[in-house]
Specification:
The protein has 2 helices and 16 strands. It is mainly beta. The strands form 4 sheets. The chain has a 4-stranded mixed β-sheet, with no helix packed on it. A 4-stranded antiparallel β-sheet has the order 3-2-5-6, with no helix packed on it. A 4-stranded mixed β-sheet has the order 12-9-15-16, with no helix packed on it.
Length: about 250
């Protein structure tokens, strides 16, 4: 009886031998675990970039180059330019540097915040006087489409000679006299105005000084089908003492 117990104890204490199949399963499991850990590390360290464009609303600035974090975002642009979006690393202090296209020292430089996964516009304006002072601000752009059957428009008034503006979106077959403004008394320098939503249809954009009836701008027909998100930049033309305005429109989404 004693010999039998010793034999059992001897078998229990000896290391377990793995079959070739068991070894293969163990190795496969180790590889999967290693890949899973690697994937987790990659996800944890990944930061979405920002989508960034330039809106030049400066009357006085020469043609300019706009560099953000060392990336040339727009080159040799002038008033009324709204560039395409480009990808820029997200940063809490991204350096924006604006120089004349012909070179020389920076007209203006600024550290700005570019949020990860967001859309922004680097917005250039000036004080319209001498000595010239330039300002760079960053606008937060809408990055989701308007709901079905609706359009979202943001209007930026940089027309100081005309002043505050009323903006109409007049449906096809309707007159201005039978319409109400979509936006009323939009002040000069209202660069942070949000988006205004309205029912999508074919419309004509008409812009007048607040309270007036004589248009400063009348667009061609805009066929809006839904989902559109647009930014509309309004600037003086400076052609006369009582100028019309020029309008530049860009697609934010859709």
């Amino acid at each position: 009886m004693l010999l039998i117990n010793k034999a059992r104890n001897s078998r229990s204490s000896s290391p377990r031998r793995l079959t070739p199949r068991a070894l293969a399963i163990a190795a496969s499991g180790a590889r999967i675990l290693a890949l899973g850990l690697s994937a987790c590390e990659n996800v944890a360290s990944y930061t979405q970039p920002s989508l960034v464009r330039v809106i030049d609303a400066s009357y006085i600035a020469p043609a300019v180059n706009v560099v953000v974090e060392g990336i040339m975002l727009a080159g040799n642009i002038g008033e009324g330019t709204i560039s395409a979006y480009a990808t820029v690393p997200a940063s809490a202090s991204a350096l924006v540097k604006i120089t004349a296209a012909t070179g020389g020292t920076a007209l203006v430089s600024s550290d700005v915040t570019l949020a990860a996964g967001h859309q922004h516009s680097v917005f250039l304006t000036d004080n319209g006087a001498a000595p010239t002072s330039y300002t760079v601000t960053v606008l937060e752009d809408q990055q989701t489409a308007a709901p079905s059957g609706h359009s979202d428009f943001r209007f930026i008034n940089e027309a100081p000679k005309v002043g505050a503006l009323d903006i109409y979106m007049i449906p096809s077959g309707t007159t201005m006299a039978n319409s109400i403004p979509l936006v009323t008394a939009l002040p000069v320098g209202a660069t942070a105005a949000g988006y205004t939503r309205f029912a999508s249809q074919t419309v004509t954009m008409v812009i007048v000084p607040t309270g007036a009836i004589t248009p400063k701008y009348t667009s061609t027909a805009l066929a809006l089908t839904g989902g559109e998100v647009r930014t509309v930049l309004i600037v003086d033309t400076q052609l006369t003492s009582n100028p019309p305005v020029a309008v530049f429109m860009a697609d934010d989404v859709n």
